[in-house]
Amino acid sequence: MKVPHPIPYQGSKRNLSKYILPFFPLEIGTLFEPFSGSAAISIAAAAYGKASRFHLNDVNQPLITLWNEIIYHPNEIAAQYENLWSEQQGNERKYYDIVRDNFNKTKRPDYLLYLLARCVKASVRYNANGDFNQSPDNRRLGRNPQQMKDDILAVSSLLRNKTNLTSTDYKEILAIATSKDLVYMDPPYQGVCATGDPRYFSGINFDEFMQELKKINKKDVPFILSYDGRTGKKSYGEILPDELGMYHLEVDAGRSTQATLLGRDDVTYESVYLSKNLVEKLHLTPIEVIANHVVHQPALFEF
Length: 303
Description:
alpha/beta; Rossmann fold; Adenine-specific Methyltransferase, domain 2; 9 strands; 37% helix; disordered C terminus
């Protein structure tokens, strides 16, 4: 099945969803994504019937505004994107800069969609003031408007009237999740929060995040967490505390882009953590989900 994705995002879990969805319970009240980004997991879950209610949250308000347009006003945002895509013809480089400047002033969702479609490697960058400052990929014009419209309409069909949208602190979202729900988290990674990495609109405090995980553990809220990983022999971030009782898996994310540019064959492994109560709900044994197990295919369930 082709899963639609109108928002291109570097670091999106689109290609890893096949490894994550097999760990979903059979019954989910609401699937919460406190750090929704491209919403890859929610879209995949909707496409494969893994969940029927969704809550997308991101501290980046313009991104959530764009999601609102995609889900609830799909034809309008698709037409706006087509207009921008068409108007750039013959003056692509300068036009991109104009749209970027206008977006930083107005935060219009159609401007953001255009920038995401045309920026280098779909890699979002922000400056210290929170302004979008990534350069365009001058080798391409951005996604074809018809293809963009097809994916927008498909996502709208999957998520319309099933999705709540918010732009608030992730802690507020975790506070309303219950034991009947599932939380999927793909937060800013440990190695970038302290340095104000431009890939993220806002970072999170590691110690505070660990405390929030303890809180939802006490509430018996099942969760899946994508958090750091390694490339070759280089690890990013520390293994999370044993006291949280999570199962740590490594997912083969393929050859590292940076390694490819340097002529190396290093493979990136994404760390995925499963809450203890989730594993118990799935009736899995430790031998089926073992710490530091490397997952190469969805071996536990098919979807």
